[in-house]
UniProtKB/TrEMBL annotation:
Name under which the protein is recorded: Antitoxin
Signal peptide annotation: none
InterPro entries documented for this protein: Antitoxin_Phd/YefM, phD/YefM_antitoxin, YefM-like_sf
Entries under SUPFAM superfamilies matching the protein: YefM-like
Domain of life: Bacteria
Family in the record: Belongs to the phD/YefM antitoxin family.
Function, as annotated: Antitoxin component of a type II toxin-antitoxin (TA) system.
Length: 112
């Protein structure tokens, strides 16, 4: 999804408030509302705002920020691995993320 910043005057935003609100909710982009004699403001959907706040919270941790930066660098360098998703409705529903395929790590085989 491409991020597009729209800019609209306060007067236009006031005249078309419903449309402005519908647009920011429909496309998850923000709209800057300019004002002549005051600071500008930003209008965005609640979902987009919550997403930004979660990102800010996660990046407060230096370890999280470093891990994200390393992951982005690996992606840009083409060091990615494609994996298939496991459908828990058809397969094992283990909450710890393990699968039955690799249960034994010490080489022993358990008889059933």
């Amino acid at each position: 999804m491409e991020y597009v910043v729209r800019v609209i005057s306060f007067s236009e935003a006031r005249k078309h408030l419903k449309s402005v609100l519908d647009t920011v909710n429909d496309d998850a982009n923000a709209t800057i509302v300019t004002r002549r004699d005051a600071d500008d403001a930003v209008v965005m959907s609640l979902d987009y705002y919550n997403s930004l706040m979660e990102t800010v919270y996660l990046l407060r941790s230096p370890a999280n920020a470093a891990h994200l930066a390393e992951s982005i660098a690996q992606y840009k360098a083409g060091k990615t691995v494609t994996r298939e998703l496991i459908d828990t409705a058809e397969g094992s529903d283990k909450s710890d993320g393990s699968s039955d395929d690799n249960e034994h790590t010490n080489g022993d085989v358990e008889n059933a």
